[in-house]
Each structure stands twice: as structure tokens, then as C-alpha cells.
Amino acid sequence: MKLKYILLTILFPAMTILFASCFDDLNTTPLDPKLYTADKAYSTPESYMQGLAKLYAALGLSGQSGPASAEIADVDAGTSPFLRTFWYMQEFTTDEVTFTQSDPGCPELSYNTYSTLNNPIISGLYYRLLFTITMCNDYLKQTTDERLNDRGVDDALRANIQYYRSETRFLRALMYYHAMDMFGNTPFITENDPIGTYLPPQRSRAELYSFIESELLELSDDPHMTEPRQNEYGRADKAAVWMLLSRLYLNAEVYIQTPKYDECMKYARNVISAGYDLCPNYAELFMADNGENTDARKEMIFTINFDGRWTQSYATQFLVAGSRGPNDPNFTQTSGISKSFKGSRATLTFVRHFYPGIDDFLGTMDDFLGTMDEVVDDGNGSLGKYVNTLDNRAIFFTPTCHLPMSKNAGSSTFIYGWPSYKWTNLTREGIPPSYTDENGNVISLTEYPSLDYPLMRLAEAYLNYAEAAVRKSGGTCTDALALEKLNELRHRAKIQAEDLSSFTLDYIFGERSRELYWEAFRRTDLIRFGKYSGNDYTWEFKNGTFPGSAVPKYRELFPIPASDIGANPNLTQNPGYDNAVSNQ
């Protein structure tokens, strides 16, 4: 494992630009199967854009040559993309989704029993983050004025490269943000550090916070960071910088024990004022043509782009196929995907955010088995009379699905819990994406989805602003902008109740789940709301028990993989995990 870490720092200059790509379809056909020296790799004007494309591709792809290729050693290629491991760790550990399969590492996440042993999901994200940071550092090394002078780069290309460098700094800050959020205290290395056998020092969470903040504040004023909505779709701009600053400041009390609500509101307001707009139809944000749909694109701030023909990944395949199972015999027609993984299901705890009266309906029954549409529409005393609001964001498949989720082991238990069909490989027209081959045949793309992943969208800015406002108020909040934006979300959801005239922190806790569910926010949200650890708030199989029990507070950080602790004497393990090995 020490060799793995060293290889990241030694070999990257030879790996930088093996992706040829444009940003609209991220065509990732390698330029050449051979490895290059850095100077040869950057020998053409196009190579600098190709090197930048490689950095963006690292967010969604597993390797250089298709979904089964891997850049991270000792981690299954299918689960090695940043997006997939990130999603697993942010969602499986929470009240929103439990994974029924026993894939390596997944039960420990679902049961909150992960330890210092090398969980392949935790290790996969850890090394993916470090790998991407290392690639960003090398790109910055290769694009200094000195290097560009040595290669005779002309003024026109040099001007473009300044924009590429700013985007690279943003991507590095994004990776460090997730490393800080997930692991707390991590190795730290920049373009100014040596390569080779150099073992980076460990930086505290507070030190990482300071670095991320300073980088983002500089980029916010950087003339080479593109103005909002002026860059190519899928590339970062100043709105993405502001959005990440808003996230950073919203969680500042967790990271540095200092509230930063005014700062959070400032940068959320910047995003809100930057010309974006809500997509009128919530479901269209998560469809296969969300990158081509102008209504969906106007809400997108920063996306990870996929194409079922050119940019194939198990990351988005899992998002769609993971929630499909044999209880839906028509899943291919209803999802546009040819596979079902029988895995991801919503807990009763999560369902309550949409249907707060469901417990009254369940009563003393062991479980509820039925079709939600039927019971909601039934006016004869069933669930309908207990539902306070109807919300079109509640995209569940309910026939033959049991509540509560009282069983959670093996594919046969997929009928426990409600799968969500939020993510789909269908277009607005209700068909899978397709293309016409050289013989005129129409080929449907049903193996790998074409949906783009919204890593940042406008609704988050609304919710960040509102949460910071109510936390700042210390009670019931009547901030005018927050109310306006929260009511816009309610109108889109077709909620029939009266508009809000005030709101509380509890409302924001539920609304973030309703609006952002299964988008990899929930673990961070639960920690910020004080609901991840302890016993005040539980969900099915929290801490590995049913109906759930307390998780110790140290699990609010993931362990640094033992392999890296052994390889780098500068690193120390996060508190609590020295005695946690036996728990896995």
C-alpha cells in the first residue's frame, strides 16, 4: 500500500492527458496507450485542455479505458469512481437509504460499524481524493510560467491556460473539502511540494479549512475564474466557487467550532442572484436528458457529465439500477436501464418526511404492504386522512414493498423499504437515450445511463441561505428572501398547503431531506443537525440494530485507512478507531 501512495506522486506526470475529451459529451477515448513524459504529453496546444478534461473525468470515471478499468489499486473498478464511493458514504450511513446487498464494505456503512480495517469503499474514496489532488497539483506544476516559457507557449494559449489553472485550483479545493468533511485530518500536499518518495504531513481539520477557504476566496475574485453561466456546461465557474463557500461556511461550526452564518448567507445569495432558475418539473433534474433539457440546465450550477455511449461509468448505473428490483417486473421500461441491483431502499424514517401521518396508518401492524397511490387516493379512512401534504418529490415505488424496513440482509429482502425511482435513464419523452450508428440503426443506450449528476444546483443555495438565516435567528425565522425561496420550492413540489410565513430549524431539517434526498448530502446534514451520533434520532439499522440505536460520536469522521497509516509515519489515526477494529 505504501507503493500505491508513492505511485500516485511518481507516475502522474506520465498519466496526465490520456483522456481526449470535450465537455459536452466527455468522450474519453485515450490519445495513445503508451505513457508519456510530461514534456511530450504537453507538446500540443490541445493537450492542456485534454489535461484539464482528465481532472474533470476523475469525478465520474474509474480509469483510462472504460468502466472496468481502474486507477486506484486494490479497489474494485466499478466502485472506484469518486461519485460512487462518495455517494455510498454520504447515503448508506444515514436515515435516507439502506443497501440490502452484502457487497464488500457496504454492510459496515449501512450499520455504521466501519473500522480501521481497510473497508474498500472508505479506502476507495480516500485514495481517489488523494489521487485527484495529486493530479491537480501536477497540472499546476506543468502550467507555470517557467514551464510554458520552456515549451514556447504563445500568448493566446497562455491566456486560456490561466483559466484552466483556476478551474484546477477549484477542483483541488473541492477534493480537499470532501477529504476534510469525511476524514477530518488528512495528508496535505500542493504543487509546491516535491514528488517522488516525499511523504506529506498531516494537517488538522482547522488547517484544511483555512486552506480551502483561502483558495476559494481568491478564486471568487480571480479574473481567470469564469463568471457564472459563462463557462461550458460541466465546467466550474464562480457560481460553483460561491456554492462551495456557502457549504463550507454552513458547516463551519462542525469544522472549526465557529459559526459563519453571515458568510454562508452572503455566498448563497451570490448564487441566487447569478441568473439561475428552478427547473419547473423536479423529476426532470434526474433524467437521462437533463444536460440537454434547457429547463433542467438552468438550475444546474456544477455537474458531473455522463453519456451512455462515450462516458460509461458504474457510478450513475448504480444510481438507477441500485433501486430497481424483481418486485417491478417492468423495471427496464420504467427506468431505461437493463440491469437491476436490488439494493437501495428508503427507510420508514425517511418516508415520514413526506408522509408524517404514516405511523398512524401503520398502527400495530407488523408492516404495511400496498400501493401508496391507492392509499393516498382512498377517501375511506386509510392513509389519505393522515397525510398533511402531497409532494411530487416523493418518487417511490411502493407495490409489494413492506414498511417498516424490518429485514436487511440479502437480495430477497429488497421488498422491505421503499425503493426510490428518483434517478432514471429515461428522457422527458419516457424513452431511453439512443444514437444512430453508421448503418442507420437506432441503438438504445440502456446499459450505462446518460444522466448528468448535479453536484451543485440552485435549490441547495436556497436551503443553505434559509438554514443559515434560521440558525442566526435562534428560533422561528421570518427572513423575507428565505421565505420567498422556500415557498418557490413548495410551489414546484405542488404542495397544496398555505405558503410559509415563518419557519423553524426542524422544518429545514425535513425540507433538506425532501428536496436533496439521495444526492449525497445527508450524512453531512445529520452531523450538522446533531442527529448522526447519539440516540436522540435513530433509523432502521442505525448501529446495526433494528429499529436502531446510538452511534458513538467518533464515527462522525471516517477512519484513515490502516494501509496509509502504516505507509506514512506522519499520519495518526482519527480518535476512537484504535479500539474499533473488532467492530467490523
Low-confidence stretches: 1-35, 368-388, 580-584
Spatial order of strands in the largest sheet: 1-5
How many angstroms separate the termini? 20 Å
Question: How many helix segments?
Answer: 23
Shape: globular
**Number of E-state strands:** 10
Share of residues in strands? 5-15%
Radius of gyration: 23 Å
Largest sheet: 2 strands, antiparallel
The class by helix and strand makeup works out as mainly alpha
pLDDT averaged residue by residue:
86
Helicity range? 40-55%
In words, what does this structure look like?
This protein is 41% helix and 5% strand. The protein has 584 residues and is mainly α. A two-stranded antiparallel ribbon has the order 1-5. Strands 2-3 form a two-stranded antiparallel ribbon. Strands 4-10 form a two-stranded antiparallel sheet. Strand 8 (434-436) and strand 9 (442-444) form a beta hairpin. Helix 3 (45-57) runs parallel beside helix 8 (155-183), helix 10 (238-250) runs antiparallel to helix 12 (261-272) and helix 10 (238-250) runs parallel beside helix 19. It starts with a helix and ends in a 17-residue tail after the last helix.
Short structural summary:
The chain has 584 residues and is mainly alpha-helical.
Describe how the helices and strands are arranged.
Elements: H1 2-15, H2 38-41, H3 45-57, H4 82-91, E1 97-99, H5 106-110, H6 120-142, H7 145-150, H8 155-183, E2 186-187, E3 202-203, H9 205-220, H10 238-250, H11 252-256, H12 261-272, H13 294-297, E4 300-304, H14 314-321, H15 331-335, E5 344-346, H16 348-354, H17 358-362, E6 368-369, H18 372-377, E7 402-403, E8 434-436, E9 442-444, E10 453-457, H19 458-473, H20 480-492, H21 505-516, H22 522-528, H23 562-567
